[in-house]
Design brief:
The protein is α+β, with helices and mostly antiparallel strands and 130 residues long. The protein has helices at residues 39-51, 102-107, 114-126; strands spanning 2-8, 10-11, 14-19, 30-32, 54-66, 75-85, 96-101.
């Protein structure tokens, strides 16, 4: 099982999602924990690497296990609602950023990573965050 940390960034009732490489779907910014790394340290490192932002604060929102990922792996994802400093600037392997609204999700305007689609966004909608 792969363990990942991910940052939930919501502005104007829209969720920030990223994509890159040969992938044709979108996911939360973040990435895999390195050996011995805590989920919080991975979150800080990945947000700096992918979006060039500094993590100011975070709070755990949802941890989920996704066994239907596109690459066939099982993932445990620690997702945090974050506050950050800096201007979002995609870099590293990230080459696309979108802001997804509840209406965009319902209309399926972009392809989403399975765990984001099944576990995360329905919870954000239920909790009135999206």
């Amino acid at each position: 099982m792969i363990e990942k940390s991910a940052g939930i960034i919501i502005e104007d009732s829209k969720l920030l999602l990223v994509s890159g490489g040969n992938n044709n779907f979108f996911w939360l910014p973040g990435g895999k924990l390195e050996e011995g790394e805590t989920p919080e340290a991975a979150l800080r490192r990945e947000l700096k690497e992918e979006l060039d932002i500094e993590l100011l604060s975070f709070r755990p929102y949802i941890t989920y296990i996704s066994d239907q990922e596109e690459d066939g792996t099982i993932r445990k994802v620690y997702a945090y609602i974050i506050n950050y400093d800096g201007l979002i600037n995609h870099q590293a392997e990230i080459d696309k950023i979108v802001w997804l609204s509840k209406e965009d999700f319902v209309k399926e305007v972009i392809p989403l990573q399975s765990g984001v689609k099944i576990h995360l966004i329905p919870r954000l909608i239920k909790d009135g965050l999206l």
